[in-house]
């Protein structure tokens, strides 16, 4: 019996020692988990703070963008109003000038030694050109325009041709 009690006591001591070891390991695990939880909470607080800051900055940017968009819309509205004013002004000027006739080219003078526009003498160094348009007059270099392959024409014929083209 004593031997049996001694073996039971030894088994109980062994079991107690193992239980204490497990309890010690569990306490260490709990301490480690509490430390991890504390770090996770700190990280969570940092992330929450960063999120709040980012949201605040986003709201500020959105407000600035809205203000800028409002300014641009106002500028566009002002530009449209100005464009309408200019169009009305153009129409009024066009109506005023509608009755004004464009100058017709005068017939060429009979004297071929003078420019038909400025009446300058043609000499050895001042060249004469035949107007290749309506008036068929002789004009100097200053009173004529180059019209490419068609030659030159007087300024009045050139202006009349271009005003009819537009």
Describe this structure in words.
The radius of gyration is 51 Å and the shape is rod-shaped. The protein has helices at about 1-95, 155-165, and strands at about 130, 140, 145, 150-155. It has a domain at about 130-165. It is mostly helical and about 170 residues long. The protein contains 2 helices and 4 strands, in the order αββββα. The model has no long low-confidence stretch (mean pLDDT about 85). Helices cover about 65% and strands about 5% of the residues.
What's the number of helices? 2
Major beta sheet summary: 2 strands, antiparallel
Low-confidence stretches: none
Structural class: mainly alpha
Helix content: 55-70%
Beta-strand level of the residues, as a percent range? 5-15%
Radius of gyration over all CA atoms, rounded: 51 Å
The backbone outline, from C-alpha atoms, is rod-shaped
Q: How many strands appear in the DSSP assignment?
A: 4
- Overall mean pLDDT stands at 84
Report how far apart the termini are: 132 Å
Strand order of the largest sheet: 1-2
Q: What letter string, H or E per element, gives the SSE order?
A: HEEEEH
Provide the descriptors you would attach to this structure in a database record.
single chain; 64% helix; two-stranded antiparallel sheet; mainly alpha; rod-shaped; 166 residues; 2 helices
Write the layout of secondary structure elements.
Blueprint: H1 2-97, E1 129-130, E2 138-139, E3 144-146, E4 152-154, H2 155-165
Antiparallel strand pairs: 1-2, 3-4
Coiled coil: 16-89
InterPro entries: RUFY4_dom (IPR059036), Znf_FYVE_PHD (IPR011011), Znf_RING/FYVE/PHD (IPR013083)
Pfam family, one: RUFY4
